[in-house]
């Protein structure tokens, strides 16, 4: 159950600075969880058990940076600031995963080094691990086949929970694929986001376009918590024509009040073997039946339905279903908001007090031209306790280039709590992180991350890009890189450092029409903001928020720009420590820069390193080292610092590393394409 008592504890700020002790109240959280909300802000959080929300979120900005103990990493990027720089010590700089038999999957660990444990994931994994409350959570597909009722041939989106100490499987949330297919729910991609965990509650976005809140303890606490009680789940199906006359025989048996041998076998295979006491009652002849009795040793009533060419068996999940997730509430963005996500939903949500922020992933259809839901919101704010939508925003409108797969970040900047959203039009938007007014947010600023003359070309051949990375706040500045769907290949990229204290349109340039010596502003256009042949021009914006920009840098001063001297498209998010910034691009280059740039807006590049394989993920900086993975399955380990331009180790993980390494409790957690590894020095 969620703890609702108020836990008061003291933070010693230092008598030399304050001359006193500062008391900060946290509700429903252990101290380490509460402090992980942000590195320099302590937040007063209302109890997740409460259905009441305060009208405004209260922030107590402390004069010193509060660092977590490094025990947990409870969301993508660790905190709502999204800077993957945990305060974790005693991490290894080398390891060996041993050998896996490609045919049987058997592990030979005789030469393994610094591997605490590993767990099987699905066949394709893009989700990043999250570590909180003694558990590790990761999104994947159903290739692991952990639930008997869903064998690994069944395509699902899965959120898996493992025991942090030993990697034992605990429970799984299962999202069946949408019948609309790959336009909304791409085959085998699974859950591509990382969840948010606070105390005993977890929030994530499913592949079906739902925002869900779960109990991190699952049903192990012996309770079915929340508003969703007895969630209906599929046990199995019998297909017409799949097994001779079994389908017709089963219909006849059900109408007689009996279970056929074929249906009993389905139940047995799903771990719900039917006892001898089962009674079948017809609800609608040839359509719906109830079967009451003992199934898998549990007394329950199953619902059996003929749906087209199949007979499907369903059960209501409860405290006996330990390996299934306990759902608190569900909000379906497709049904409730008319959202039409492109291929998948991939937002890793974050929170600010009681507020939950979600990118809806609204996008194009399979033609990559039409926008089915131009009026659907792209960004929403919810009450994290109840699932109520507080405000929506559709700023990208009909200018969405492809999909919207980024995740929001939050920081108090210029004294104002700002939530930053990467629009599908290539524009970074900042809103006040509040409950809004009349269902609408307060827009603070917007920044076009593409040059105005850049052009979107179907298939990725153009120079105009999406925003797939997550914005990062560091020392009062915001950092964001541009990129595209990895299937679109490599291309021109940009990395921006932005001043978030300005307001309005703070883009580097403005789009204008040159008419009679005047410059008439023009509305933003989807594929190309400025077309010179139409008498349009890009002019410098006097209100620009650019602090510095990186696209090209002649590092060797030979007058030519080499491949290694370019910033390419990136799916990755920056990581910054002590003013040293690292980011990987999709061409496989790790770039190391000065986070401050120069006073005249130039980027300062320390080095680039070619990993010779595409990189989808982001760096981890911790314990004086930098870790970054690539599509070949290699993890490069660098000693932290601008002078360390060669890796000290390059370790192969056995399969592609699409995700980002994370660290907590003296352990590195890496999800490869098909496995989750916990890596640490011997204790």
UniProtKB/TrEMBL annotation:
Family annotation (SMART domains): PQQ
InterPro entries: PQQ_b-propeller_rpt, PQQ_rpt_dom, Quinoprotein_ADH-like_sf, WD40/YVTN_repeat-like_dom_sf
Domain Pyrrolo-quinoline quinone repeat positions: 538-639
UniProt-listed Pfam families: PQQ_2 (PF13360)
Superkingdom to which the source organism belongs: Bacteria
Signal peptide residues on this chain, from the entry's feature table: none
Annotated protein name in UniProt: Outer membrane protein assembly factor BamB, contains PQQ-like beta-propeller repeat
């Amino acid at each position: 159950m969620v703890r609702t008592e108020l836990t008061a504890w003291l933070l010693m700020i230092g008598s030399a600075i304050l001359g006193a002790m500062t008391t900060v109240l946290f509700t429903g959280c252990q101290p380490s969880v509460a402090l992980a909300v942000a590195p320099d802000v302590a937040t007063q959080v209302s109890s997740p058990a409460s259905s009441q929300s305060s009208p405004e979120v209260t922030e107590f900005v402390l004069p010193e940076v509060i660092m977590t103990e490094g025990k947990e990493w409870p969301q993508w990027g660790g905190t709502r600031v999204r800077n993957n720089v945990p305060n974790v010590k005693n991490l290894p700089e080398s390891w060996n995963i041993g050998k896996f038999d490609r045919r049987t999957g058997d592990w030979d660990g005789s030469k393994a080094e610094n591997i605490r444990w590993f767990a099987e994931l699905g066949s394709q994994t893009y989700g990043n691990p999250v570590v909180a409350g003694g558990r590790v959570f990761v999104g994947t597909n159903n290739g692991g086949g952990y639930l008997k009722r869903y064998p690994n041939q069944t395509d699902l989106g899965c959120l898996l929970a493992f025991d942090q100490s030993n990697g034992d499987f605990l429970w799984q949330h299962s999202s069946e694929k949408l019948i609309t297919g790959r336009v909304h729910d791409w085959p085998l991609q699974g859950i591509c986001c990382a969840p948010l965990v606070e105390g005993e509650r977890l929030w994530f976005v499913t592949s079906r376009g739902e925002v869900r809140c779960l109990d991190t303890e699952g049903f192990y606490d012996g309770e079915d918590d929340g508003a969703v009680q007895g969630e209906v789940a599929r046990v199995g199906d019998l297909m017409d024509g799949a097994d001779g006359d079994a389908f017709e025989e089963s219909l006849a048996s059900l109408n007689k009040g009996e279970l056929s041998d074929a249906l009993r076998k389905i139940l047995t295979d799903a771990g719900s073997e039917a006892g001898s006491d089962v009674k079948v009652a017809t609800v609608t002849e040839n359509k719906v039946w109830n079967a009451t009795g003992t199934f898998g040793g549990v007394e329950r009533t199953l619902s059996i339905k003929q749906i087209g060419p199949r007979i499907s068996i369903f059960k209501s999940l409860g405290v006996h279903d330990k390996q299934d997730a306990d759902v608190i509430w569900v909000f379906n963005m497709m049904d409730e908001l008319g959202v039409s996500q492109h291929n998948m939903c991939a937002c890793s949500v974050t929170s600010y007090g009681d507020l939950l922020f979600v990118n809806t992933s609204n996008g194009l259809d399979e033609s990559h031209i039409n926008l089915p839901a131009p009026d659907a919101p792209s960004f929403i704010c919810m009450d994290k306790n109840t699932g109520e939508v507080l405000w929506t925003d559709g700023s990208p409108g009909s200018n969405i280039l492809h999909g919207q797969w980024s995740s929001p970040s939050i920081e108090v900047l210029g004294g104002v709590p700002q939530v930053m959203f990467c629009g599908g039009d290539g524009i970074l938007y900042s809103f006040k992180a509040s409950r809004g007014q009349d269902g609408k947010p307060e827009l603070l600023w917007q920044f076009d991350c593409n040059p105005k003359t850049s052009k979107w070309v179907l298939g990725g051949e153009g120079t105009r890009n999406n925003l797939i990375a997550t914005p990062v706040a560091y020392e009062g500045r915001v950092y964001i890189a541009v990129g595209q769907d990895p299937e679109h290949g490599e291309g021109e990229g940009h990395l921006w450092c932005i001043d978030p204290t300005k307001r309005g349109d703070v883009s580097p340039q403005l789009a204008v029409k040159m008419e009679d010596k005047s410059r008439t502003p023009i509305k933003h256009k989807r594929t190309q903001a400025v077309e010179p042949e139409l008498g349009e021009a890009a002019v410098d914006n006097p209100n620009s928020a650019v602090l510095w920009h990186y696209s090209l840098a002649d590092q060797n001063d030979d007058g030519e720009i080499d491949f290694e001297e370019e910033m390419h498209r990136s799916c990755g998010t920056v990581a910054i420590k002590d003013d040293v910034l690292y980011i990987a691009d999709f061409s496989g280059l790790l770039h190391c820069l000065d986070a401050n740039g120069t006073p005249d807006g130039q980027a300062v590049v320390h080095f680039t390193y070619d990993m010779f394989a595409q990189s989808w993920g982001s760096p981890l900086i911790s314990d004086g080292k930098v870790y970054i993975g690539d599509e070949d399955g290699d993890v490069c380990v660098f000693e932290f610092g601008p002078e360390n331009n060669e890796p000290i180790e390059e370790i192969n993980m056995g399969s592609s590393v699409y995700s980002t390494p994370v660290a907590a409790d003296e352990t590195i957690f890496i999800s490869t394409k098909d496995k989750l590894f916990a890596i640490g020095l011997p204790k």
